[in-house]
Amino acid sequence: MVNFRKILYRCRISLTGRPKKSTRELSVQNKVILVTGGAKRVGSAICRRLHARGAKLVVHFRSSNEAAKALQTELNQQRANSVALAQADLLDHKQLSGLIEAAVQHFGQLDGLVNNASSFFATPLGECSSDHWNDLIGSNLRAPLFLSQAAAPHLRKQQGCIVNIVDIHTERPLKDYVIYNAAKGGLQSLTRSLAVEMAPEVRVNGVSPGPILWPEAGKWTNEAERQETIAGTLLKRCGEPDDIAKTVSFLIADAPYITGQIIAVDGGRSIHL
Questions:
Q1: Fewer beta carbons under 10 A from the terminal one: N or C of the chain?
Q2: Annotated catalytic, 180?
Q3: Number of folded domains in the chain?
Q4: Is 23 inside a domain boundary?
Q5: Three-class DSSP labels, 15-62
């Protein structure tokens, strides 16, 4: 009888008798990663997780000045001069390339970009406005595109990567969130398009959160709405910000052969809606 397990193992043995290593080992040790919207909520969890693995961070924020400084102090106490802050309004197109250049100038390189910053609010059909469009499309789609474009030469040089924070509702739209759904749907498509455009030097992937942190406004301030959402998951519980952070970290540091993919982190909700 053929022993396939032994054959497969032998295929991995080098001439020295040891298993062959991957042709491309990844690590975030001393890699420079820019995280947009990194001062609070899921963004801060991503920063803490990447920093714990040895990354240097550029934490972007718009108005969360105190939270950003507190996070910087916390992480720099663990490892001196490992975290820089960058304030920018992502709705101002002129500031986007400057944000990338600020990151590169501070640390001398850029290895990763996490497009996490996002506006989120309801826009029922009949109440949509151009201001709503500019805000939601600007933060969720336009900024990731132009930040990625500005970062591209730096990321190619470092054989880096991009991770976009998408949303499970790109597949099944959330009622009354017409523009947000469109923006995140565009980001999902952009993720795959960038993977094609930036290959083979740069990997581009996305993470689609489900119920992780409740929005600070809207219908989810109602406990009944929250319980209904949780009931729609297969795991019957809410996720944690670190669930997203771990997945982002995996895509950056442990997935050299993954690009153009969107990973749902939602307790099974996207297949059980």
A1: N
A2: yes
A3: 1
A4: no
A5: CCCCECCCCCCCCCCCCEEEECCCCCHHHHHHHHHHHHCCCEEEEEEC
